[in-house]
Structure formats: C-alpha cells, structure tokens
C-alpha cells in the first residue's frame, strides 16, 4: 500500500528519533509538540503492523496497531463486451434493430441499445459502437447521437463515393429510452456493433 501521513499522540515525543511500522522505518518524521508527531508511513502490504517510536528515553510500542488498507481503484469507465451487432439494415444479411427498405438520405434510424448485446436494461449512460455504412448511394456522411437530443453538427463517418463501405468507432451517449439515432446525408445501409458500455 502507498505511503500515508499519520498523526501519533503520546508523551515525551518532542525528541522522537525514529518511528517504525512493522519494523520498517517511517519515510519522514515531523515533531508537532511534546505530545504529537506526524509521520509518513513506509509502503507495505495490506494488514496490521505494530508501531514503535524511539526517543532518548527508550523505545515505546503504540497500544493501537496500524492497519494498511488495500487501495480500492475506481471501476473502469467502460465495461468491455464481446462485440455484438445491434443494427443491420440489409435484408440479405438478416435485419436487426430495423425494419424496412434501405435507409434513404435524411432518414433517421432510431436504434434501441439498452437491454441488448450485453448492455443492461438500465444504468447505462454511453456505449462504444462500431458504425459501418455500406452500399452508399453517393458521397456524404453519417451522424450518430443520443435520441431526444439535438443532432450534432459533426459527422461520425464520411462516405467518399457511391458504393463506399466505411467504418468508424464512436462513443455515443444514450438518449430517450436507451436509444441512439443515426442519420445519413446519402442513402446507405447501416450497421452498428457494440463493444463496450459505461454507467450513467
């Protein structure tokens, strides 16, 4: 465990010469007054250790032992998933999350994300999606955003020409009811594969 600043109280500490934790010398000692010293503990494994202070009068072992507590790291921002397809607009490939003809220019495709592909039905706030556009009718771009919010003025991926197939990884917040919206400036088939999610 990492070093920690600890305040020790007692008597006759004005001339404290050393302090050890589990037999290992403190990193530093700062005498506050005759009854108080502050020390920086040495690194150690988790668990209890004895605390021993040495002064010109002798060596004293503290009544209370010091406990090194394991460092608890925050959970990762994103929980990785085995990639799972959530959206497929091509009938020949087996439609998922969509029904109808090939999306046309300007059409908004609303995709239900939560409760699918390993994403919990509640508690998710964002997802990492690999967005693919294929069989584009012409040059253009695709934008993805949380449904219920205003579309951003930026593209998620760009279509270079008719027939283009382009993919891009995007981190998208979840909108109304755990959905994301996709819009293309040119007619194109769309696919979305989820790879991770983050809590709200």
What does this structure look like?
This protein is an all-beta fold and 200 residues long. The protein has no helices and 17 strands. The protein has a four-stranded antiparallel sheet with strand order 3-2-7-8, with no helix packed on it. Strands 10-17-12-15 form a four-stranded antiparallel sheet, with no helix packed on it. The protein has a four-stranded antiparallel sheet with strand order 11-16-13-14, with no helix packed on it. A hairpin with a 2-residue loop joins strand 4 (28-33) and strand 5 (36-40). The two termini are 30 Å apart. The model has no long low-confidence stretch (mean pLDDT 91).
- SSE pattern, N- to C-terminal: EEEEEEEEEEEEEEEEE
Helical run tally: 0
Mean pLDDT: 91
Estimate percent helicity.
under 10%
Q: How much strand?
A: over 45%
Characterize the main sheet.
4 strands, antiparallel
Jot down its keywords.
mainly beta, 200 residues
Secondary structure topology:
Blueprint: E1 5-9, E2 18-21, E3 24-25, E4 28-33, E5 36-40, E6 47-49, E7 51-55, E8 58-61, E9 66-68, E10 79-88, E11 108-112, E12 124-134, E13 140-146, E14 157-159, E15 166-173, E16 179-184, E17 189-199
Antiparallel strand pairs: 1-5, 2-3, 2-7, 4-5, 6-9, 7-8, 10-17, 11-16, 12-15, 12-17, 13-14, 13-16
Outline of the structure:
The protein has 200 residues and is mainly beta. Helix content is 0%, strand content 49%. The protein has strands at residues 5-9, 18-21, 24-25, 28-33, 36-40, 47-49, 51-55, 58-61, 66-68, 79-88, 108-112, 124-134, 140-146, 157-159, 166-173, 179-184, 189-199.
């Amino acid at each position: 465990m990492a070093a920690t600043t600890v305040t020790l109280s007692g008597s006759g500490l004005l001339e404290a010469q050393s302090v050890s934790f589990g037999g290992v010398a403190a990193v530093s000692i700062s005498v506050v007054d005759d009854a108080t010293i502050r020390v920086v503990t040495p690194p150690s494994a988790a668990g209890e250790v004895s605390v021993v202070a040495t002064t010109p009068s002798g060596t004293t072992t503290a009544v209370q032992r010091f406990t090194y507590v394991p460092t608890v790291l925050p959970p990762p921002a994103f929980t990785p998933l085995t990639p799972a397809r959530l959206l497929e607009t091509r009938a020949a490939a087996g439609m998922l999350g969509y029904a109808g003809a090939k999306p046309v220019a300007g059409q908004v495709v609303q995709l239900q994300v939560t409760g699918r592909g390993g994403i919990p039905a509640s508690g998710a706030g964002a997802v990492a999606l690999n967005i693919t556009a294929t069989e584009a009718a012409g040059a253009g771009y695709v934008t993805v955003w949380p449904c219920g919010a205003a579309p951003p003025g930026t593209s998620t991926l760009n279509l270079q020409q008719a027939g283009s197939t382009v993919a891009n990884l995007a981190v998208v917040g979840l909108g109304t009811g755990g959905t994301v919206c996709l819009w293309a400036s040119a007619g194109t088939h769309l696919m979305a594969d989820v790879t991770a999610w983050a809590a709200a």
